[in-house]
Design a protein that fits this description.
Blueprint lengths: L2 H14 L1 H38 L5 E5 L24 H8 L4 E9 L4 E5 L5 E4 L2 E5 L11 E4 L7 E4 L8 E2 L5 E2 L8 E3 L4 E3 L15 E5 L7 H6 L22 E11 L8 H4 E5 H11 L4 H4 L5 E6 L5 H10 L3 E3 L2 H43 L1 H9 L4 H42 L2 E3 L4 E3 L9 H10 L12 H27 L3 H7 L2
Parallel strand pairs: 5-14, 7-13, 11-18
Antiparallel strand pairs: 1-15, 1-16, 2-5, 2-15, 3-4, 3-12, 4-8, 6-13, 7-14, 8-9, 10-11, 12-13, 17-18
Helix pairs in contact: 1-11, 2-9, 2-11, 2-13, 9-11, 9-13, 10-14, 11-12, 11-13
Length: 513
């Protein structure tokens, strides 16, 4: 028999018992929807976890430090195998760069004294307790520092500012008012019954065009105005902070020019959020200017070093190499592994629940095919008497079983896509475009007029940077569902098909009369 004839007979046999075929296909549809939707919810959790990890910053950064410079005999994680305390110096930095899969290395030094940055006429705008970090500027690109605006510093006195540094300044002529920005926090609004994030306002001034002064000292306790504003006890006037602690002759004041703004990344230091980043040599010179006797200015060692792996997957190998050299390390690798493991377990559990429903549907396919073989005994005998081969009969019954699985898989995949879309649309309408359902934090536009239906529909399907989806169905899951349902049909139809080919032709004709 030609395969086209087999397909025609298959269609005729399936439509002959419409109710039974419909119920069998319906079972496959339910099973297929169950497994696809269960896995899609796990994929949604995985997508949210990935966004959470991404919000943590550059996860390929490994922070290297020593265990207090203590000498430990016999090696270990805080000393070399020779019993000598390991040091974070220039020699160590060069050895880190020689490690395979290391993209960049930079020593990190922070200003060990309190500092105040001022801008505007008469130092009107004040940022007290600003963070100052020094890095090797030649490693800026290789370490993954991203400039959101401006350019790299080229001369002394030029620095980079953190992404939200401009919002750390307060207005001393306006009762210490500050500009607000969306930082992930929220305030409960009783009128809307939501925890709403603050709107981002324009800063008081443009950092790239406004000269700054930085004041610091060994015993510098902060700007007097800010100290008085928040109940400090440093004394001084209540004006713009020109007397008191800031006027101490031991304090040092330097002019700064901001040439660029870097993207915030806590893994690269808090200065990338609200602070200033200087060249390492310039910061050491500033420390020496503040305190010529400071060991930090004279020392050739560093408190910590940032090491960037070429890829996130290479972080464990890089950390192992660093620990083998006797250094302590820290990274988000353990957190990432734990989140991935939790997601994997959830996927297996939810997938298993869906697989049970599909197994029940597979039993239904087997039952349908067994009944079909029993009802068509005479037909099988006639086909054999007319010269149909055993192979043709087996293929015919397997085609019927496979068709039931294929049809149920296709319809189930389409129905799963519709249910997934509805779940995401409902989530966006209730919690907003970007939200955390557990903490009650929501941001972006919700479905109550702030976001067009078409845009919500697109975000529910394709997702986005600031979009939370609760059900995510990747393309391979649709393909897997259809192929798996078809294979289940073929597998559970194989037994009835073998039963059909074992029926003797003459016995089949005689018994059916």
């Amino acid at each position: 028999m030609r395969f086209s004839d087999i397909l025609r007979l298959c269609a005729q046999n399936l439509f002959r018992r419409k109710s039974r075929t419909f119920l069998t296909v319906l079972g496959v549809i339910v099973g297929c929807c169950s497994i696809v939707l269960m896995v899609s919810f796990a994929q949604g959790i995985n997508e949210r976890n990935e966004k959470t990890l991404k919000s943590m910053g550059d996860l390929s950064i490994v922070t290297v430090y020593t265990a207090g410079g203590m000498e430990v005999e016999g090696g270990g994680s805080s000393s070399s195998g020779s019993g000598e305390a390991v040091k974070l110096d220039d020699k160590a930095v060069e050895s880190f760069r020689a490690i395979p899969d290391v993209a960049g290395v930079t020593p990190v030094v922070t200003l060990p004294y309190n500092a105040t940055a001022k801008a505007g006429a008469g130092g009107r705008y004040i940022f007290d307790g600003v963070s100052i970090m020094g890095i090797d500027m030649s490693q800026l690109d290789t370490m993954g520092f991203t400039l959101k605006d401006g350019s790299e510093p080229l001369r002394d006195g030029q620095v980079l500012a953190g992404e939200w540094t401009a919002y750390g300044f307060l207005d001393s002529l306006n009762n210490g008012a500050q500009r607000s920005y969306e930082d992930g926090s929220c305030t409960y609004n009783a009128a809307t019954d939501r925890c709403e994030a603050p709107e981002t306002e324009d800063p008081f001034f443009d950092l790239l065009t406004t000269p700054l002064t930085l004041t610091s000292g060994v015993d510098y306790s902060g700007d007097p105005y800010v100290q008085n504003l928040y109940g400090g006890s440093s004394g001084g006037s209540s004006g713009s902070g020109t007397t008191g602690a800031s006027a101490d002759p031991k304090n040092v004041t330097v002019d700064l020019t901001v040439t660029g703004v870097v993207a915030s990344d806590y893994n690269k230091g808090y200065a990338t959020v609200q602070g200033f980043i200087m060249d390492l040599k310039a910061l050491k010179a500033l420390i020496a200017q503040i305190d010529p006797t400071s060991s930090a200015a004279r020392s050739a060692t560093y408190d910590q070093v940032y090491v960037k792996a070429t890829d996130l997957s290479q972080v464990p190998e890089v950390e192992s190499a660093l620990k083998a050299m006797g250094y302590q390390t820290s990274s988000y690798e353990d957190i990432r592994k734990q989140m991935e493991e939790q997601t994997r377990v959830i996927q297996l559990i939810l997938g298993g629940i869906g697989a049970v429903a599909l197994l029940v549907a597979a039993i239904g396919i087997a039952n349908t095919m067994v009944m079909s073989v029993s009802e068509r005994t005479r037909e099988i005998g006639i086909m054999k008497a007319l010269g149909c081969t055993v192979h043709d009969i087996r293929v015919m019954f397997l085609t019927e079983a496979g068709a039931i699985g294929l049809l149920g898989g296709v319809v189930g995949a389409v129905l799963s896509a519709f249910v997934s879309l509805c779940v995401n649309m409902a989530g966006m309408a209730i919690f907003g475009m970007s939200s955390d359902a557990f903490s009650g934090v929501s941001s972006g536009s919700s479905g109550d007029g702030g976001e067009s239906f078409g845009m919500m529909l697109w975000h529910a399907i394709a997702g986005g940077e600031d979009v939370t989806r609760y059900s995510v169905i990747p393309w391979w899951l649709y393909l897997f569902a259809v192929v798996f349902a078809t294979c289940i049909g073929l597998l559970f139809g194989f037994g009835p098909a073998n039963k059909a080919v074992r029926i003797p032709a003459l016995d089949a004709i005689r018994d059916s009369q």
